[in-house]
Design goal:
This protein is mostly helical. Helix 4 crosses helix 7. The radius of gyration is 21 Å and the shape is globular. The model has no long low-confidence stretch (mean pLDDT 95). The structure holds adenosine monophosphate and tryptophan (TRP). Adenosine monophosphate (AMP) binds next to helix 1.
Length: 333
């Protein structure tokens, strides 16, 4: 059975981009593959953050993931498996500094910090090293497939480079080169500005929280930007495309086909598209919210389950690390 691994940072709300772009795939893959899904709290320290919130956010994300269908036995918390950080150090020595400085995410986030002008907006070594720790997350379980959104392409490329360099240096095809696995919706756009991807960094307008109440979801879809007026003739405006994507991803393919026909015949009213999309999203997320309420009534149980699964998963990580130390000439007694 092939192995799948993916992770997500505990940095606040889970939005529809995270769900449709990544987490939905996690849920669907669980029956076919050996799966490991991590909440990466070490990664969340790479940008300025509030120490008071990190642990709460980590448990909150665990609850959210289980509420949308991720099995607790497949979940781990990164900082409960310190082998990830140790392997990261080893990989640091198999990765060039120049390659890390050229990473798009590093450049974007560095710029974001500089632009914020805050006093504490210093750029940490952790931010530069972020993709190496991500590589350790993936390779420590010898993952074949990594389900992520399109924005993670470059990081996956780096993981393969590191695996390759490691294999060459130790003279053995030890690590599998991991491949990306996309969902059908690798990029969900912001409904407020469809030229951007849906993301938390733009502020509340730019993402729809999976656990938002019905009225909020309806309001956000109602005010979604459709056609800004400068779309070339014969192409569908990004905002309209995005609503269709959301509708299809919510599992409403009959409605999708029907409205798409209307679009092609020129009779589609955007207000109808919005109504049907909002209904579909509310039905889907309503189930998740109900499940979350149930789970939240016994958080202790979930915490115990995930502590247990992390310690089981740690056994795999320690075994890989033991072999790696052997291969690179570190002490192994
Ligand atoms: P982030 O919230 O940026 O930590 O992303 C967590 C996961 O969600 C990653 O696998 C991303 O690729 C995916 N993701 C984030 N934003 C989007 C989006 N707007 N569309 C599709 N996938 C996304
Ligand atoms: N960088 C990923 C993101 O921003 C999160 C992540 C950390 C990850 N480690 C990973 C994703 C390992 C896949 C595999 O979404």
């Amino acid at each position: 059975m092939k192995t799948v691994l993916s992770c997500i940072q505990p940095t606040g709300d889970m939005h529809l981009g995270n769900y449709f772009g990544a987490v939905k795939n996690w849920v669907d893959l669980q029956d076919q593959y050996k799966c490991y899904f991590g909440v990466v709290d070490y990664h969340a320290m790479s940008m300025p953050y509030d120490v008071k919130n990190l642990r709460t956010n980590t448990w909150e994300l665990i609850t959210n993931l289980v509420s949308v269908g991720v099995k607790p036995e497949n979940l781990f918390i990164q900082s409960l498996i310190p082998e990830h950080a140790e392997l990261c150090w080893i990989f640091n020595c198999f990765c060039s500094y120049g390659q890390l400085t050229r990473m798009t995410q590093f450049k974007d986030k560095t710029q974001q910090l500089k632009d914020s002008g805050k006093e504490d907006s210093f750029i940490s070594v952790g931010l530069l090293d972020y993709p190496v720790l991500q590589t350790a997350d993936i390779l420590i379980y010898k993952a074949d497939y990594v389900p992520v959104g399109k924005d993670q392409d470059q990081h996956l490329e780096l993981s393969r480079d590191i695996a390759q360099r490691f294999n060459t240096q130790v003279g053995k095809e030890y690590f599998v080169l991991p491949e990306t696995l996309y969902t059908d919706t690798p990029k969900i756009r912001s409904t407020a500005d469809p030229s951007k991807k849906m993301s938390k960094s733009g502020g509340e307008k730019h993402y729809i929280n999976v656990f938002a109440d019905e009225a909020t979801i309806r309001r956000q879809i109602k005010s979604a930007v459709t056609d800004s007026g400068n779309t070339p003739v014969g192409t569908m405006a990004e905002g309209v495309q995005n609503l269709f994507e959301l509708l299809k991803a919510s599992g409403q393919s009959l409605h999708y086909d029907e409205l798409m026909d209307q679009y092609h015949s020129g009779s589609l009213k955007y207000v109808d598209l919005k109504q049907v999309t909002a209904d579909a999203l509310v039905t889907l997320t309503g189930k998740f919210s109900a499940r979350k309420k149930e789970i939240s009534s016994d958080r202790k149980r979930l915490k115990d389950q995930v502590k247990q699964s992390s310690s089981e998963i740690r056994k795999i990580a320690s075994e890989t690390l033991r072999e790696v130390k052997e291969l690179v000439g570190l002490m192994n007694i």
